[in-house]
User: Fold these one by one.
Assistant:
Number 1:
Amino acid sequence: MCVTISVMVTSTVEDYLKAIRRLQQPTGTATVGEIARELAVTPGTVTTMMRHLSGQGLIDYEPRKGLRLLPSGEKAALRVVRRHRLIELFLVEVLGFDWSEVHEEAEQLEHVVSDRLLERMDAMLGRPTHDPHGDPIPNGDGVLAHSNGRPLADVDAGAFRIVRVSDADSALLEWLNEKGLIIGRMFEIVRKDHIAGILELEILAKTQVQLGLKAAESVFVESAE
Ligand SMILES: [Zn+2]
């Protein structure tokens, strides 16, 4: 019987590492319950996987305590993030996809593109620094720039520029595109109604757009003043 001792990072493992990376961002640790919710699996399944990842030196895991990525786990997670974001940009820039369509495609392709294909895509795109949603692309050495902007839902008045939009909700991305709320677009806040939960924006002194404060949590802006 043959036993391999090299670290095999499968697509399932990659999804777990990505989820942990995202979940540990606010506090530095993630919990089994959070991961189970995020990946829609049972806590028992997560616990089994956490033992496995811990055995491979990818995470620091003690039952009933928070868990976190170790440097090798962080590196593996960022490799997937790099693949995901470059694929999204390639689909938009080269294949003409809409920014609302690419996240689901990239979720599949991120596990299968070879390093050689990815290198070609990166070169063809001119070594880009950001994906179509404004998220920074980790470079080949796994260095990731800071994510720009603060949530539109958190600002009250003034002129702003859209720098980043969450890629999680394709219906919202479609709607934002329709309203012209795309990366780089400048606008002014006309009215913020906390009780109704609505923001009213004026884009380039022409069209006005109303959006819910919930949606405005997914749009990230910088002051344009
Ligand atoms: Zn995405």
Note: The first strand starts at residue 59 and ends at 60.
Number 2:
Amino acid sequence: MLGGGFAGGYVARLLGRRGATIVSPENFMLYTPMLPEAASGTLEPRHVVVPLRMMCPRAELILGRASAVDTERRRVTVETEDDVIAVRYSNLVVALGAVSRTLPIPGLAEHALGFKSLADAIQLRNHVLRRLEAAASAASEGRQRRELTFVFVGAGYAGVEALAELADLVRDALRYYRTLRETPQHWVLVDAAPKILPEIPSKLGDYAARELERRGVDIRVGTTLESVEPHAAVLSDGTRILTGTVVWTAGVRANPLNEQLGIPVDDRGRIVVDASLRVEDREHVWALGDGARVPNEATPGQYDPPTCQHALRQARRLAKNLTGEARPYRYRMLGQVATLGRYKGIAEVLRLRLRGFPGWFVTRTYHLYQLPLLTRKLRVVVDWTTALFFRRDIAELGMLGHPERLEP
Ligand SMILES: Cc1cc2nc3c(=O)[nH]c(=O)nc-3n(C[C@H](O)[C@H](O)[C@H](O)COP(=O)(O)OP(=O)(O)OC[C@H]3O[C@@H](n4cnc5c(N)ncnc54)[C@H](O)[C@@H]3O)c2cc1C
């Protein structure tokens, strides 16, 4: 199994005692739908990851990065912390997911923050809290306004949920900054598409836009980011927004390693698989998840979108195909859910559309149900319950992982 993310982790778990070898650079699976809450501090970051050794107790884990595949000799080259090893396989499952897709926008790589991994979420939280400290000690009102301006580029799930959660964090934290109570905040959501949340039914997407606008979010659709400067973002509508925070969530692309594995990929770098998730012309190689182009019998002519829901269903089919007769993958989506910060959400389940508190409640219940391991579920419930009764923690822990060196 190359990759221990949503797709790879679930296939290994479902294979159970039939066994699997997972090659992964981390020893955990990240439950991405809860990442925005880890960034805002509602959830403890450790609780949104599931240790692979607990999730798949019968599987072997090799901590490292796959770098090459030899399909003739059925071998994978893996770079571990201090070695390069060859791992033999009888069936190979490629589940390397996607990576952030940046565009050649001047200043983007230097000054913007990503939002894809746990490290990104922790960095974003620390960055936002540091902006509040910078605003509190700023010499002028203009500088304070700049520090309290936050620009999010990309209005899909990740961008909308992260903006809503972080806006709640800032609102709560500002209670402790007496000098900033009157300073206006400016939250900007930018997307090239004509609407936010294109993955969600139009009516719910419209509700989400109205709800964010009601909270003062400045939504700029049909607009692109032109450049990023150390203290400003320039948009295609000609506006130059003074800000110390630009968050980039405007898209992902298949892991570029796919193209180096010598197996067929499409023009977007996704591995080409047949209806049973088997890689074309490769007897013992399979692929799924965000890094694969997966046909779905329930949606003829349309490939699966890159979501957890689909990765999980593909994993169920693939685990069966690996151990029995290979059958075509077929999955009809039951619904979509998203949160818009505390007590607000949108959900469409079995054609029932919910918004506001019911939408938020259904979204949370769904994710709690999907999260593997009872111990993880309990930790998350304890975090949510604590958040209901106590104020957020606003400690900025940017020094974690960067301790001072020992003095000689
Ligand atoms: C912030 C955010 C929020 C999201 N929210 C939602 C949501 O609310 N609902 C939803 O349905 N979807 C959501 N998604 C999408 C969802 O996370 C993906 O669809 C899902 O994770 C796909 O699973 P995957 O296994 O294909 O990829 P991943 O889960 O990304 O797993 C890929 C794995 O491959 C590993 N890997 C990379 N390179 C190597 C290598 N060389 N060797 C070995 N392993 C390697 C990575 O470490 C990773 O563990 C969100 C995504 C993000 C980023």
Note: The two ends are 45 Å apart (CA to CA).
